[in-house]
Each structure stands twice: as structure tokens, then as C-alpha cells.
Amino acid sequence: MKIAVVGTGYVGLVTGTCFAETGNQVTCVDIDERKVQKLINGIIPIYEPGLDVLFNRNTAEGRLKFTTSLAEGIEGAEVIFLALPTPPGEDGSADLKYILKVAGDLGQLLKDYAVIVDKSTVPVGTAEKVHDYISLGAQVEFDVVSNPEFLREGVAIDDFMKPDRVVIGTKSERAKAVMNKLYAPLVRQGNPVIFMDERSAEMTKYAANAFLAVKISFMNEIANLCEKAGANVDDIRRGIGTDSRIGKRFLFAGIGYGGSCFPKDVQALAKTAQEYAYDFQILKSVMDVNAKQKTKLLPVINQHFNGDLKGKTIAVWGLAFKPYTDDIREAPALENIEALLAAGAKVTAYDPEAMDNVKNVLGNRITYAHTSYAALDDADALVIMTEWPMFRTPEFSKMNLLLKNKVIFDGRNLYELEQMKEMGYTYYSVGRET
Ligand code: UGA
């Protein structure tokens, strides 16, 4: 099948590459000339494990191409994916200007029937708007389908190639047949393609992310209560996660969720509710809980140092919002580091992938260590913000020699309490006794 993907951000690039891998002829379109030139030269602008292998194979074999020309990109395409940014506007609602601009252009350019697919996370009613914008100029038949993406950064290829489900919102039988054909190689293991109307598909995406944000925030609140009531949130997680109605995943308490999706999508869904005059109370609580959770270690750190962080050196492990990504959007680390600096502390940080991105934000206001151990040199304490696997089983004997004090503030509950006690650490974590 010949397909076009408009927008080469995270979702667009993964979508294009993976559909090339399943044998389609894919052209990715982006208005950013520098980015397109890089992609043509084989440079992938994001860090995503496994993407390079598929990218290199499919560009080499001529199935994956890049252009800045929308007209060229959609030539002969049966399916046109819109994977464009929907940044939050000032009021928190998703801004559709990029999507609607391309929709208008498509109306002028379409020469044959095509299925236009909203892949971006877009509010309820967007498919109808896209349809209207294309209709303004279109001389041919077309369908607009909502096909939200559920991939996670860091495991994007696996999530895309082996989706739990594929959600397709359309009432058109013709479009359903095209989409079924395209997704057939990805759902061979029996995972469902779920058809529904456009509005329901759009809402499904927000409901999925908001539900996961609720799940995490619920556990974070349980953790906060555990600290007061003398219980251990790890045990609670095991105790409830084994109930198949609850499920084991996304029950890890910590310093809150970040990234480009959960915060933005929870906010946008709250905005949608507001537009429909519905008082969606859980969403308000989730936003509130998460905002507080992100900095919950700060008062603990402050108290440990008797309110005086001036001149103290704090090592920070982990800057990305989660492991296996260099993405620092809404990462708890940044907010915490800003607060530590404001309190007069010196910060030395280490992250295996995200340091370049942090340099663009914090510049030389902090020190960047070459290794996780180098960050500990002469530090008064270690703060853990991201659960990169290398932080899980460090050489404590090495750490003991480097750290000035055996003090760890762990926002991701990486270590066993007993183990830390035996080694003589003052160990603060989330939802467990100190
Ligand atoms: C999320 C969803 O998981 C994807 O299904 C969705 O497609 C994507 O948003 C999107 O809308 O594009 P992502 O933001 O890449 O994916 O990352 P997650 O792995 O979901 O983690 C989100 C945040 O939740 C991270 O900050 C993570 O640290 C936090 N988290 C996750 C917890 O605090 N506890 C957990 O148990 C799980």
C-alpha cells in the first residue's frame, strides 16, 4: 500500500517506519527542512531503542522516504496519516492549528480517494473539523478516520508492532476495509481492531491516558498515606495488583508522572469536560495530586539538612521523565533541581541520555557528570529522579567511598529498606518507612 505520514515527530516517525517495515511504501512529510534533510541523510532526531534498525533497513530498501512537499508526499497515497503536534493552548485545550492547516491544503491537493487518518491525540469532534476543512477544496471522495496511537516512548517499536488493540473511529465501510488491510500484519496474534465512531475513538485515547494517570495518582496518594500510617506501598502494590480486575501495571508510586502525554492529555480532557459543562472531579484531583507529588521529596530533603541547603552538593541520578528516553518534558527532575538551586544547593547530575537536552534548559547552572559514580564525588546526598536500570544495582562499595554522607532520597523506590539499613544509609523513599 502507498501511504503518507504528515509530521515526523515521535508518533509520525515511528508510524512511518513501522508501516514501511510491514511492506508499505511510505513517504513522511514535514515542513521542517532541516529535519527532513537530516532524515534523508540517515540521522534520526529522537532517541528510541530499536528505531534505528528499522529506519536504516527501510530507507536502504527504498520503502521509507522523506520530503517537505505535501503534494509530493501524498501522490498516489491510499492512506494519509496526520501525526502533527497539538500543543496545549493558553487555556489547556489542544491547539489544532497545524492539523487544520494541513487539512485545508489536502482539500486542494487530493486527486483520488484517500483515507485521512488523525493519528495525533485530538479532542472530541476533531475528525468532523478535519472533514470540513478538507471538504472546502476537495473534488474527490475521501474519508476521515480517527486512529489514536497508544505507544509509549522507550518501547515505541514494540508497542506499535504488537499493539494490545487498534482503535479505529469511522462509519465508512470503505475506510474500514482500507484500515483493516493496513493493520492486518500487526494484529495477527489475535489482538483486536476495535471499530467505533470518530468521537468515541477520540475520547478513547484521552480516557486511556487519563485512566492511567488516575491509577498512578491513586497509588501516589496511597503511598503518602502509607508513610503516615506505617505501611509499605510496595506490599500494597503486590497485594492489590494480583487482583486481575486491578492489574499489576502502572501501580508504581513515585514522584509523579511526567512526559509529553499524561499531563497534556489530562488537562485537555478536563478542558473538554468544561466545554460540555461537566464537572469532571477526578481529573481535577489527579492534576492537583500529581503537581504536589513531583516535589514531595523537597521538604524531606530540606528537613534532613535542617532547612539549610546553602553550599550543599546534591547528586542527581536521572533527568529524563522516565527511563529509555531523552525526553525531559514535564520531568520531575527539572522542577526539583530548580528548587534545590534556589535553596542555594549545588547540583551535579547524571543521566545516560537526557543530559544534552537538560543543558539546553539549565546550561551551566548545574554540573554534568560523565558517569553515575562521578556525580557522587563529594556529594552531601544523592537524589534519584528516574529509574534507569543502571541505578537499580549500583556498586554500593564504590558509592560509599564517593559520597560525603550515606544519604539517599529515592523518588523511584529502587532499593530494599533492609538492604539500606544494613549498609548504614539514611534512606528516604516514597510510601515506605524511613
Ligand atoms: C503514555 C501512555 O502510556 C501511552 O499509551 C500513550 O500512547 C502515550 O502516553 C501518548 O499519549 O503518546 P508515555 O508518556 O511515553 O506513554 O510514558 P509512560 O510509560 O506511560 O509513563 C508516563 C509517566 O508515568 C512517566 O512519568 C512514568 O514515570 C509515570 N509512571 C508510570 C509512574 O509514575 N508509575 C507507574 O506505575 C507507571
TrEMBL record:
Q: What Pfam families does the annotation carry? A: UDPG_MGDP_dh (PF00984), UDPG_MGDP_dh_C (PF03720), UDPG_MGDP_dh_N (PF03721)
Catalytic residues, per the record, are 261 (nucleophile)
Q: In which pathway does it act?
A: Nucleotide-sugar biosynthesis; UDP-alpha-D-glucuronate biosynthesis; UDP-alpha-D-glucuronate from UDP-alpha-D-glucose: step 1/1
Residues binding NAD(+) are: 30, 35, 86, 121, 153, 264, 329
Q: What catalytic activity does the UniProt entry give for this protein?
A: UDP-alpha-D-glucose + 2 NAD(+) + H2O = UDP-alpha-D-glucuronate + 2 NADH + 3 H(+)
Recorded GO molecular functions are: NAD binding; UDP-glucose 6-dehydrogenase activity
* Protein name, per record: UDP-glucose 6-dehydrogenase
- Family, per the entry? Belongs to the UDP-glucose/GDP-mannose dehydrogenase family.
Q: Which residues bind substrate?
A: 150-153, 205, 250-254, 258, 322
Q: Which domain of life is it from?
A: Bacteria
